[in-house]
Automatic annotation (TrEMBL), chains A, B, C:
Catalytic activity: 5-(2-hydroxyethyl)-4-methylthiazole + ATP = 4-methyl-5-(2-phosphooxyethyl)-thiazole + ADP + H(+)
Stated name of the protein: Hydroxyethylthiazole kinase
Pathway: Cofactor biosynthesis; thiamine diphosphate biosynthesis; 4-methyl-5-(2-phosphoethyl)-thiazole from 5-(2-hydroxyethyl)-4-methylthiazole: step 1/1
MF annotations from Gene Ontology: ATP binding; hydroxyethylthiazole kinase activity; magnesium ion binding
SUPFAM superfamilies with a match to the protein in the record: Ribokinase-like
Family classification: Belongs to the Thz kinase family.
Binding positions for substrate per the UniProt entry: 44, 200
EC identifiers of the protein: 2.7.1.50
Keyword Ribosomal protein: no
NCBIfam families recorded: PRK09355.1
Residues given in the record as ATP binding sites: 119, 173
Length: 272, 272, 272
C-alpha cells in the first residue's frame, strides 16, 4: 500500500491533474490552494452544465455542500450523474447534513449516482448513511453546525455501509482518521489539534482527495489524502503554534511533502 | 465591567459556542477563522430554513450584508425573525447600505425584529438610523463603497437612537471605537492603522461579537469584541508592518489573548 | 512611459480610489486585499443595480467571471453597459470562457459595451477574440479548467484584435506578460514560478489593474499592474519558497512597492 500511496502523490505532482469542484464559499480559497499545493489544478463552478463540463475534462470532481444557493439543487445532482456516467470519482462532503430542506433533497437526488468517495466527520457520515437508508443508526446525532459530535469509531459501521453501497471508499476525519472500502479499514493518526482551529481543513482535504482520485482508486486516494494531511499538520505544528501561522505552514508543508514523506506516515489496515 | 469582559472571553474559550452566519463572500473565511480563534464555532448558510435552524441550535447569529444574492432577500429577514422569536442576539452589519434596492428592502424587512446588536462604521450606522426613521440626520452621507466617510463621534446620536430602538447595543468602528446601549457609551482606542489595509476586519469583528453574544449581554459582547480587536491589532502591529503578515499575526494574537488581556485594554464608559 | 507608471502607482496610494467588482468566490478575498495593498478601495457586489451604483461612484470596475451564479447573467452586462455609458474603464477577466452556456451568453451580451481592458491568460484571450468574431483563430483551444494551454505570443494577434475593437488595452499573463493597445505591444518578464502555485494571482491582478485604471489610461494601467506583480513576485520569491508563505510575502511586497520600484521593472515597448 505504501508504494501505491507514494506513486499517487508523485504522479499527481507530475501530471497537474484537474479536479473541478462545487464547493462552499467559506473555504473555497483554501480548497483551491491545497489542490495546487499537491500538484493539481483547480476550477470551481456553480451551474450544472459547467459542472458536467469539468467532470468531462477533469479526472475527478469534488462536491462540498457547505454554503448552498438555489442553483446547486440542480448542479450537484447533475455533477454526480455525470461522474457516474463517465466512471469518474466524485468526492462528496455532506457538510451541514440535516440542516434545512434543500440539503436533504440534494443528497437524496445524489444517492442513485453513488459517489465513489464520501468524506466527512463522524456525525456527517452517520447522518448520510441513515438518510440513504443504509443501516439503522441510533438517534441523537442531529446537526450541530458543522462540527462532529460523534466519535470516529462510532461511524465505522455507517462508513462501511456507505462504501459497500457506492463500491468506493469512505473517509471519516477525526483525531484518528478512518478510511474504508467496506472490506478494508485503514486507520491513521497524526496531524495537530490546531487543525480544528482553522476553518476548511476537512473541506480542503476533500479537494485534495479528488485530485489524488484522478491518479488512484478511491481507497488509495482517500488514504493518501489523510496521510498527506497528517504529515503536513505535524510539520506545520512544529513550526507554528497559533492558527493563522499554522495554516500558512500547513499549505507550505503540503507542497513540500514528497510521495515518500506521505507514504511513511503511520497507518494500519485491517481486513473486516 | 472589566471582570465581565474577562469572563465573556474565558467562557467562550471553554464553551466553544456556535454562532451561525449569513455573511459576505469577500471575508467569510476570515470571519470563520476569527470566530474559531476566540474559541467559538462557525457555520455559514444562505437559505432561510438553514438560518432558522442555526439560530435555534446556536447561541446567536451574525448577518453581514456584503455580497447579497437573491436568496438573502428571504433568509436575512427570516434569521432576524427567528432570533427575535427565540430571544437570541442577532448581530447585524449593514455593509453597503444605500447601494441598490434589495439591500434597502432587506433592512426594512429586518427592522420589526430589532436586531440586538448593530455593528458598522460611522456612515453605515448613520444610514441605518435614518433608513429606520429613528432620527433626522443631516444629508450628505451617501454610499462610498464600503468605507466610512463620517467620523465615529458623528454617529453617536444615531447609534444611541438605534440602541434605544432595539433594546440592545450598537458598535461603531473607527480610530476610536464606540459602543452604546443607549444610556451608556463606551469608547476604546487602540488597534493599528494596518487594520484598514486588510479586508474584513469589521466583518470578522461582527462574527466575533456574535460568538461573545452567546455568553454575554449585547453591550458586554460588543465591547469585548472591540477590545479583543484592539488588543490583537496592537500586538500584531508590533510583529508585522505589512498587511498580509499583519493579518496572519492578527488572528494568531486573537487566539492568544486571554480574558485578562482583553479586559486590560483601555476603555472608558460614560453615562449619557 | 516609466514616469507615467510611477505616477499611476503613487497617485493611487494618495487617492485611495474605489474600483468595485463582480468577482469569483474562490479568490475574492485576495482581489480585495491586493486592491487595498496598492492603495485602492474595494467593494464587491452581485446585483445589477448595485454594480451600476459602484460604476457610478467608482473610477473603474472589475468583472471576473469565475464562479457565476444566475444573478450575474443580468448584472455583468449591466455593469459593462454602465461603464461604457459613463466612460469608465471596465476590466474584464473572462475566466472559464467556453465552459457552459451562461458564460458564453454573458460574454456576448458584454460585447457591445467594449470593455476597455481585457485581462486573461493566452487561452482565454484567444477564445474571447474568437467568440466575438474578431479574427479567425486556429481550432484546438478548448477549455481546460482555468489554466492556459496556449503560449502568450500565440495570443498576440487575438490581443491586438481585441484592443482595436475595444479602443482600450489587453493584457495577457504568462511567463512573459504582454500588454497591447493594438498599436503598441509591451512585454515584461519577471515574477516567480510560485505565482502559478497560488490561486488568484491573475484574478487579483485584474482587480489591481482596475484600481490603476481609475488614475491612468488603459494601456498604462494594465502595464503598471503587470510590472507591480512582477516586482512583488520577485521580491516575495526572495523571501519565501513555498506557496502560502509566498502569497503572504507577495501582498506585503505589493504594499511596499513605490512608484519608482514598479517603474524600474524591465519592460520593452514595440510599435506594431
Amino acid at each position: 500500500m505504501g508504494s501505491r500511496i507514494a506513486e499517487t502523490v508523485e504522479r499527481t505532482k507530475a501530471a497537474c491533474p484537474l479536479a473541478g469542484s462545487i464547493t462552499n464559499a467559506v473555504t473555497v480559497n483554501l480548497v483551491a490552494n491545497a489542490q495546487l499545493a499537491v500538484g493539481g489544478s483547480a476550477a470551481m463552478v456553480n451551474f450544472a452544465d459547467e459542472a458536467e463540463g469539468l467532470v468531462e475534462i477533469g479526472g475527478a470532481f469534488y462536491v462540498n455542500m457547505g454554503t448552498l444557493v438555489p442553483v446547486h439543487a440542480e448542479s450537484i445532482p447533475a455533477a454526480a450523474r455525470a461522474a457516474h456516467k463517465w466512471g469518474k470519482a466524485l468526492v462528496l462532503d455532506p457538510v451541514g447534513i440535516g440542516l434545512g430542506g434543500v440539503r436533504t433533497r440534494i443528497l437524496l437526488d445524489v444517492k442513485p449516482f453513488r459517489p465513489l468517495i464520501v468524506r466527512g466527520n463522524a456525525s456527517e457520515v452517520i447522518a448520510l448513511s441513515r438518510l440513504w437508508g443504509l443501516e439503522a443508526v441510533a438517534e441523537g446525532s442531529g446537526p450541530r453546525g458543522v462540527d462532529a459530535v460523534d466519535g470516529v469509531e462510532d461511524a465505522l459501521s455507517a462508513a462501511r455501509a456507505l462504501a459497500r453501497f457506492t463500491g468506493g471508499a469512505v473517509a471519516v476525519s477525526g483525531a484518528v482518521d478512518l478510511v474504508t472500502d467496506g472490506s478494508r479499514v485503514a486507520r491513521c493518526s497524526g496531524g495537530s489539534p490546531l487543525m480544528t482551529k482553522v476553518t476548511g481543513m476537512g473541506c480542503s482535504l476533500g479537494g485534495v482527495v479528488a485530485v489524488y482520485a484522478t491518479q488512484a482508486d478511491p481507497f488509495t486516494a482517500a488514504l493518501a489524502g489523510a496521510l498527506a494531511y497528517n504529515r503536513a499538520g505535524e510539520r506545520a505544528a512544529a513550526i507554528a503554534y497559533t492558527p493563522a501561522s499554522f495554516q500558512v505552514a500547513f499549505i507550505d508543508e503540503l507542497y513540500r511533502a514528497t510521495g515518500e514523506d506521505v507514504a511513511s506516515q503511520p497507518f494500519e489496515i485491517e481486513e473486516v
